[in-house]
Amino acid sequence: MTGLRVAIAGLGAIGRTLVRKLHEGIPGLELACAAAGNTAKAEAWLKAENIACPLVPLEDFPKHADLAVECAPAALLEKICRPMLEAGKSVMVLSVGALLPRPELTDLAKAKGGKIIVPTGALIGLDAVAAAAEGHISSVRMTTRKPPIGLRGAPYLERHGISVDGLTEAKRVFSGTAREAAEGFPANLNVVAALSLAGIGPDRTMIDIWADPSVTRNCHSIDVVADSANFSMSIENVPSDNPKTGRIVALSVLATLRKLNAPLRVGT
Q1: What is d(CA 265, CA 268) in angstroms, rounded to the nearest whole number?
Q2: 102 lies in which domain range?
Q3: Tens of pLDDT along 174-206?
Q4: To pair with 136 at 20 to 30 A between CA atoms, which of 2, 44, 185, 227?
Q5: Is residue 267 part of a domain?
Q6: 237 shares a domain with 132
Q7: What's the rounded Cα separation, in Å, for the pair 206 and 155?
């Protein structure tokens, strides 16, 4: 292998897309290994796709890879990140909300020379937010509208007895900080965690979440007030095979991976 060796943690909708693309070939990158919750199912899928990729335990990732891409349930974040960071290697994190209560992982990366990379994911304009944060940002507010099925089962809804079944009109199910949203909607709102890390932090970034039966896409709009610019952004993401995740997330990871070794890098 001559390129950056990449491990994929999780073979759901996102992980499978990444494995396929890495197998097809991305300049400067090599598919090193993967891990999956259901090994037998993963092996069957890899065989059907004619992809040679060893399945290894998460703790063995540092032996095989230089960079691990986390696209697994948020509960596994620690098991994916810690071994790689301890070895001074890199992790690309999609479960960004799970990073917020774990600042020790950033401290570990700093101490060991590792790196945590957060791709833009399902949002747009993180470059603009990060640039504005070099000056002074007064406020960041995000509004998310999702089909009710994409919010079903969220811990916040279950804790507060909020049902999204049978809705005939939009219902606001949450209003609060990015930190609260990431904790209450761990499979849905990694976008707001990424937004908060790019800007003014999880306790000042605000979000409203709507369950809206009139939409078929995951819709996010952001309003930023800063001393350098006031701007608004919006995006409507087509859901992937997993209704909680947009198709563009895997594509964002691919774009970030390509940028790692590219001779021309566009964007901060």
Answers
A1: 8
A2: 4-122+248-260
A3: 999 999 999 999 888 889 999 999 999 999 999
A4: 185
A5: no
A6: yes
A7: 19
- Would you call 220 a catalytic residue per the annotation? yes
User: Looking at the domain assignment, is residue 191 inside a domain?
Assistant: yes
In this structure, the answer to whether residues 83 and 151 fall within a common structural domain is no
What gap in Å lies between CA 75 and CA 63, rounded to an integer? 23
Residues 227 and 143 in one domain: yes
Which one from 23, 136, 160, 220 is the annotated catalytic residue?
220
pTM, two decimals, is 0.90
Which CATH number belongs to the domain containing residue 145 in this structure?
A: 3.30.360.10
Structural domains counted in the chain? 2
